[in-house]
Amino acid sequence: MKVNFIAFAIPFFVSFMLLEYFISKNKSKKLHQFNESVANLNVGIAERIADLLTTGSFFFIFTWLNANYSIFSIKSTPTTWVLLFLATDLLWYWYHRIGHTVNLFWASHIVHHQSDDFNYTVAARITVFQAVARGLFWCALPIIGFSPEMITILLLIHGTYPFFTHTQLIGKLGWLEYIIVTPSHHRVHHSSNPEYLDKNYGDMLIIWDKIFGTYAEEITEPHFGLTKSLGSYSFLWQHFHYVLELVVAFRMAKTFRQKVKVIFGGPSDIDGRIRQLLERKYSQKAPDIQYSQKLIRAVVSQTIVTVTVLFFTILFSEYLMGVALFVMTGFIILSVIITGAMLEQKKWIFHLEFVRIAVASYVALSFFSNPYLIVVFVLLGVISVLFYQTIHSRSRELLFSN
Ligand SMILES: [Zn+2]
Ligand SMILES: [Zn+2]
């Protein structure tokens, strides 16, 4: 049986998240807020499934670029591996810096910075869009002449390392602080303290920040999150609020020059009042919700189910062709939308839940085409129509009980 080993990244990273959680609890340090952690995981779950769908295409693009447009023909030697590492890290530095300073790219990277917490779950906050934008930057590597195989291996390492810089449990690391990006450097990057804004873009080496003048040492205590906290845990709102802000700003801009500035200017070029306007219209901020134990249990079990489905989808991705993969992706995306909306007590999830159950039934039927299963689903359908009101009030109770 052929399995996709990339799936094991999920239990690997989750075990570090749990370890960090229990160590911080032991030390009586409150590093995790329940809603923040769930929202972070939701973003990460969607990114993993998007990664599964896009990795193959990027390998194909890298191979095509390397075969047709490469400047050099680079063989695999210890020296070229070092060069590839340096080139990748330098490209990342600029990709990341542009991600903060150009609105078009900030619209996707902003999601990584929305959490007011700073722990390993924040490392999972990489958006679907960011995965694509990052891939475009990596296209420079096959054009330089590195082979797609070398690039794929290096990107695996390069993608794993930054996970470990998202923690408050590790202090400064002595002489390593001069060379590599440490948790201390990355804490600065995730802070909204004025002296820390737009600093420490590096991924593995901190030397680029020192060379290009964007380095800051962690001196004062960092305050994590965006300058103006989003205060929303909705998967959809987190992903699209800035895109909407740009659309409004673009429509309000009068001249061509102003319109170009909306897209290619920086976040400070966007009027802060637009966010308030959109929030009033589309995202009534959740007041400080006191989650009931029942709701917490429901959110935790949903998250465990989604992560498990994600793990097996990736593990057996070789056997999931076209429609099946599309349906599994649909189930996972619906799940993270619903879990995010549960954290904000959105009433509309009740109806979306029916769609999710329909998708889950389709998945079950396509894997086990047993006629009795069809009877069970039809019966369940009839029961849900007959007892619609009761199920509806139970779901309200789950969301709003204290
Ligand atoms: Zn960043
Ligand atoms: Zn980060």
From TrEMBL:
PANTHER family: ALKYLGLYCEROL MONOOXYGENASE (PTHR21624:SF1), STEROL DESATURASE-RELATED PROTEIN (PTHR21624). Residues 81-214 form the Fatty acid hydroxylase domain. Pfam families: FA_hydroxylase. It is a multi-pass membrane protein. It is found in: Endomembrane system. This is Sterol desaturase family protein. It comes from Flavobacterium turcicum. Its main location: membrane. Keywords: Lipid metabolism, Membrane, Oxidoreductase, Transmembrane, Transmembrane helix. InterPro entries: Fatty_acid_hydroxylase (IPR006694), Sterol_desaturase/TMEM195 (IPR051689).
